[in-house]
């Protein structure tokens, strides 16, 4: 079962997205766009995961939506396994992919490799509801996440005006999570 479970990177990415957003439903093309993967590969992996009982689907009009099956006996173990294998940056990245964020990066001492207990994070274009989910990652990984949310329009304006604070954040060492800054 484990061999078939982690047989492809597409499957690992799909699992990561669905297990980190268990209350959300996604259709195939939406998942493919979020993960930047081929829709046919995503569909194949979703069908395999559905056969294993890890996800379930629901057809609404002409779209088939997929969601993690929280009642699956493997749900919590898989979620923990994926979180551990991704580490904190990977877990944040998976969470942000589902949030609709345009770009995000970690900066500061954590990005520079220092042993600190606070992670400084910039998220561009995400909904404020992402903050609640970041709190659960804080508990899981034992780090304080200091997050700066910037609307996409505000970010573009600050970049155009060569905002000193933004320039300092971008020019320093950082860990890119999603998008281009």
Plain-language structure description:
The protein has helices spanning 2-5, 9-20, 28-35, 39-51, 75-99, 130-141, 152-160, 164-171; strands at residues 26-27, 55-60, 63-68, 103-107, 118-124, 144-150, 174-178. It is of the alpha+beta class and 181 residues long. It folds into 2 domains: 2-75, Winged helix-like DNA-binding domain superfamily/Winged helix DNA-binding domain (Arc Repressor Mutant, subunit A, Orthogonal Bundle), CATH 1.10.10; 100-178, Beta Polymerase, domain 2. Strands 6-5-4-7 form a 4-stranded mixed β-sheet, with helices on both faces. A 3-stranded antiparallel β-sheet has the order 1-3-2. Strand 5 (118-124), helix 6 and strand 6 form a beta-alpha-beta unit. The longest helix is centred in the middle third of the chain and has 25 residues, at 75-99. The N and C termini lie far apart (40 Å). The mean pLDDT is 87.
CATH architecture heading of the largest domain? 2-Layer Sandwich
CATH C-level of the largest domain: Alpha Beta
Strand order of the largest sheet: 6-5-4-7
What is the strand tally? 7
The end-to-end distance, rounded to whole angstroms, is: 40 Å
Mean of residue pLDDT? Answer: 87
**CATH-assigned fold name of the largest domain:** Beta Polymerase, domain 2
Rg, Cα atoms, Å = 17 Å
Weakly predicted, low-confidence segments: none
Strand content: 15-25%
Tertiary shape:
globular
Helix content: 40-55%
Main sheet overview: 4 strands, mixed
């Amino acid at each position: 079962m484990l061999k078939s479970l982690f047989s492809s990177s597409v499957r690992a990415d799909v699992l990561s997205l669905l297990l980190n957003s268990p209350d959300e439903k996604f259709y195939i093309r939406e998942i493919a766009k979020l993960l930047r993967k081929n829709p046919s590969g995503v569909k194949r992996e979703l069908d395999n995961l559905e056969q294993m009982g890890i996800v379930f689907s629901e057809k609404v009009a002409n779209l088939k939506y997929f969601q993690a099956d929280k009642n699956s006996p493997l749900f919590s173990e898989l979620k923990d396994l994926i979180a551990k294998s991704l580490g904190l940056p990977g877990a944040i990245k998976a969470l942000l992919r589902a949030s609709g964020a345009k770009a995000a990066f970690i900066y500061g001492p954590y990005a520079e490799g220092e042993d600190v207990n606070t992670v400084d994070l910039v998220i561009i274009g995400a909904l404020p509801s992402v903050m609640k989910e970041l709190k659960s990652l804080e508990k899981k990984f034992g780090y304080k996440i200091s997050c700066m949310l910037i609307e996409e329009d505000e970010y573009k304006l600050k970049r155009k005006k060569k905002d000193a604070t933004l320039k300092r954040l971008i020019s320093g060492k950082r860990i890119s999570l999603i998008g281009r800054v």
